[in-house]
Amino acid sequence: MRRELRELIRLAGPIAAAHVGFILLGAVDTAVVGRIGETELGAVGLGNAVFFAFALFGMGAVLGVDPLITQALGAGQPRRARVVMWQGVWLVAALSLPLMLVTSLTTTLLESCGIEPVTAQQASAYVNARLAALPPIMLFAVLRAYLQAHTVTRPMVVGTVVANLLNLPLDWLLVFGDRGLERIGLPALGMPALGVVGAGLTSTIVTYVQVVVVIVAARTTGGDQLVSRAPVKPLLAKAVRLGWPIGLQRFAEMGLFSLTGVLMGTIGTVAVAAHQVAMTLASATFMVPLGISAAAAVRVGRAVGAGDQHGARQAGLASVALGGSFMAVCAVLLMAFPRPLAAVLTDQPQIIEAARPLLMVAALFQISDGLQSVASGILRGMGDTKWMLGVNLAGHYAIGMPLGILLAFAVGIGAVGLWWGLCAGLTTVAVALLLRFQFLSARPVERV
User: Fold this and answer.
1) pLDDT given for residue 223 in this prediction
2) What is the rounded CA–CA span in Å between residue 251 and residue 257?
3) Is the pTM of this model over 0.90?
4) Predicted confidence (pLDDT) per residue in 166-178, tens digit
5) Separation of alpha carbons 273 and 198, rounded Å
6) CA-CA distance, 258 to 265, in Å (whole number)?
7) Do 8 and 321 contact (CB within 8 A), yes or no?
8) Cβ–Cβ under 8 Å, residues 108 and 98
9) Nearest-angstrom CA–CA distance, 130 and 314
10) pLDDT digits over 129-165, tens only?
């Protein structure tokens, strides 16, 4: 177990750093726009919720290649792993335009959902400024799966660091224009203040920078490059069969948070802004178990490919222990320092105060959130993706969301009630996925 923990930390650390850097791009948007006012902050919060719901669907849908790549490498078939990678690239090409259109159309429904017109319009403008980032985000997911399966993690970190180094100054320039330059003592360049649109454009630009780094790395990883790049129907079909439940699961989970954001909009602008602050902080901590989840998928997938049932179970147990321990520490920090942490993202006193009770609830569901993410990675490595979808739909939409709506509007405790619903849903999903892992790992697991 100790050896497995060391291997997981070695692999998960850089992946988690890349995930943290990814969410930091949105956090910087929030922090910069939060200096304009609560309407703009709420708009970016809603825009991020809509955008990431569809981005996560796209990333999940192409991750059907993940278990195919790891299990191929575990079975000593590196050429097959590279052919599978190219199937992922074809999936990105097929999904990009439809996903961009659906995402843009969704933003036109915000106002009809009860969101204040100004907030809805600015959220739509932010999302449309980020639409062009969807294809590189999905391509990054495919190439990341390929690289991390080879335990090559440095390019993801380098790409994320470069993107974040560019993000803040470019965000500041495009959001505030010349006024932003004057604030820090620099001469004017004739730049207009683009507001929320500037934040969206910045995130799009740096996403392309990020994916270029991993493209360069993927070209030189995996040994023999002389494999077919053409679509292979059986592999594509298998990748789609494994990927669509992952995509729908991630969409359902992020859709839950997006729907919660929309419901917050019916409570008020301050509630939306407070929800965004709390969600940004909770998402930042979640990136680490998400990295552990990716590492677990690699370790478990390789063991399954090699026919090592004991190794797959040990990798899964070590992942659960590591993810649960980290999120326990995060829970303590959120509970101990809610106001200082909220103040990192906004200087609006009323928003900080409204975010404090939400962060207390977030502290309580940290462990559940981390464990369900890690368990999802374990099951993905085993090639068991349909179970994850069913459990997420039942836990979040049959239990969590109805409970949250009941507490928020029928009982009357507002925004905090919606977050208690999130807590119930995440806990249900975590327990169910861990039980599934226990069941599967107790018997031989076949390759997909």
Assistant:
1) 63
2) 10
3) no
4) 998 898 888 888 6
5) 19
6) 11
7) no
8) no
9) 41
10) 999 999 999 999 999 999 999 999 999 889 988 998 9
CA gap 26, 24 in Å, rounded? 5
3-state secondary structure string across the chain? CHHHHHHHHHHHHHHHHHHHHHHHHHHHHHHHHCCCCHHHHHHHHHHHHHHHHHHHHHHHHHCCHHHHHHHHHHCCCHHHHHHHHHHHHHHHHHHHHHHHHHHHHHHCCCHHHCCCHHHHHHHHHHHHHHHHHHHHHHHHHHHHHHHHHCCCCHHHHHHHHHHHHHHHHHHHHHHHCHHHHHHCCCCCCCCCCCCHHHHHHHHHHHHHHHHHHHHHHHHCCCCCCCCCCCCCHHHHHHHHHHHHHHHHHHHHHHHHHHHHHHHHHHHCHHHHHHHHHHHHHHHHHHHHHHHHHHHHHHHHHHHHHCCCHHHHHHHHHHHHHHHHHHHHHHHHHHHHCHHHHHHCCCCCHHHHHHHHHHHHHHHHHHHHHHHHHHHHHHHHHHCCCHHHHHHHHHHHHHHHHHHHHHHHHHCCCCHHHHHHHHHHHHHHHHHHHHHHHHHHHCCCCCCC
Name the CA radius of gyration of the chain, rounded. 21
In sequence order, the 6+-apart residues with CB closer than 8 A to the CB of 104 are 127, 128, 131
